[in-house]
């Protein structure tokens, strides 16, 4: 997932001129894992999400109407190691019409895809996600401290199912679990101390791939637009493990939606359904335009920086 207009566009401009060197987004055998909106896919890739737009009523009390506009760019250093940089511009409109806006903290991720099994359509990776404290605006609540989140990712296709269940073979599941650790256990603002909890960050997606149905199971003669769609449900949750403030320990959202997969891009849309009042006040929505840079620039940016070091 994602983060900036202005700052990430600058990152994109710089990265476009970096030297490069071999190809492909998240294919594992016959299985394609698309870039999902709320949890990350389990591969490293050369890709750009610009923009990701979300609108919802947040979990504040009283709640504010929040609009987030994000961007994120990812670059493979080798075939199995990549980095991502992103940011989010946030606009808040509270009760009575009071508004605040600004950038959230800059986010980076360092990801290693350590297991890829094409036969079993199974992939795993690990990353260190860093949310850089003090790089965002206090007006929208960006933290002053840095947060480190080591995370494990996995993806598994259902192509192993027997022929009697062939129409379930297009199913796939992804999962992630991480542990979010703030670099400061507490912060003091206006003379008031606030504890910063550690949290287990967990989520995943259940997907049904129409491209897989056509190419690996059976061509039903459906329209091309239908054959490019991947309906899915995501879940993205966080559970505090210490420094409880007396509220909900687990917050997050459930996100049903659909992804349209083009040749060099994908378009996604999902609902935002909070699991409790602390997660949000009513349903919202989000959409994303995502570019496959390995297909757009196959001979330059879309190659790993160090092809000789790839596996």
Report a brief summary of the structure.
With 311 residues, the protein is mainly β.
Structure description:
The protein is mainly β and 311 residues long. 8% of the residues lie in helices and 48% in strands. The chain contains four helices and 17 strands. The strands form three sheets. Strands 3-4-5-7-8-9-10-13-14-15-16-17 form a twelve-stranded antiparallel beta barrel. Strand 4 (65-76) and strand 5 form a beta hairpin. Mean pLDDT is 90; it is low at 1-23.
* CATH C-level category: Mainly Beta
Radius of gyration: 20 Å
Provide the CATH superfamily. Answer: monomeric porin ompg
E-strand count? 17
Provide mean pLDDT, rounded: 90
Task: Assign a percent range to the helix content.
Answer: under 10%
- Class inferred from helices and paired strands: mainly beta
Q: Any low-confidence stretches, pLDDT <50, length ≥5?
A: 1-23
Number of domain units = 1
Q: How do the strands and helices of this protein lay out in sequence?
A:
Layout lengths: L5 H10 L11 E2 L2 E2 L14 E11 L7 E12 L4 E13 L5 E5 L3 E11 L4 E10 L15 E11 L13 E12 L3 E4 L2 E4 L3 E10 L1 H8 L6 H4 L1 E12 L9 E12 L3 E10 L9 E9 H4 L15
Antiparallel strand pairs: 1-2, 3-4, 3-17, 4-5, 5-6, 5-7, 7-8, 8-9, 9-10, 10-13, 11-12, 13-14, 14-15, 15-16, 16-17
Which descriptors would you attach to this protein?
single chain; about 300 residues; 12-stranded antiparallel β-barrel; about 50% strand
